[in-house]
Amino acid sequence: MTSADRTVIAFDLYGTLLSTESIAKELATHCKCGHEKAQEIAALWRRYQLEYTWRLNSMSLYKDFSTITNLSLKHDLVESSVTLTAKAVASLMHAYDSLGTFPDVPPALEALQSSLTIDAYIFSNGTNSMVSTSVKSSPPISPYHAVFKDLITVEEVQAYKPDLRTYQHLAQKVGKDCKDKQDLGSIWLVSGNPFDIVGARSAGFQAAWVDRIGKGWCDRLGDAAGGGPTIVVGGVEQAVRGIEKWVEDRGKEKQKGN
Q1: For the whole prediction, is pTM greater than 0.90?
Q2: pLDDT-derived band at 17, boundaries 50, 70, 90
Q3: 100/15 Cα distance (integer angstroms)
Q4: In Gene Ontology terms, what is one molecular function of this protein (predicted)?
């Protein structure tokens, strides 16, 4: 099988492979609060982290993801009425580079390791340094870091998902023609973030949405901007299997058409 025949799958990192909620344990230690309160702080941190990226996109400004993560944490702490020392904040930032994974991630990476038909990539809002450190430091991911052909970030583009330029950057990095609809339609994004799914679909990609909660697809912006997910799955391992089946089924349909 030539590289042109292999399926390109780009995996979002934060909220898809790495659990941003896993920072709650570290937060509980520094904030001296219970697990429930730490989870609330972690969720608010993530909310402002994403909100800051969207606001910067709207203003045509860019600050790297490490800076955004730091600023959103400080916003979160003020809103949560928590005071931490600079040393504690630095410790939390360090911990962010070794977030835990979701249970469905290691089996997915195992499947990718033995796959002869998939070219896997990371595609993240994170900085090159953050992503590289996370992939190599997270115990469940580090044994499989060689599974990924490349760690692609938005740092070079200096814009955040779901800006169209970020997806075009990904397409170029994996060797696809941004002006060729068929080329773009052969790229898959796997993400647990609805805004990322809508962005990928608007750019012409296929997308597998990881719905771990099981509530189903609710995001209605896709109705006006490229559509919703190509497939909905319960975990990353299911995404890999689902994409393989989707590609196989389309291949059979194509053969019948010939």
Answers
A1: yes
A2: very high
A3: 10
A4: phosphatase activity
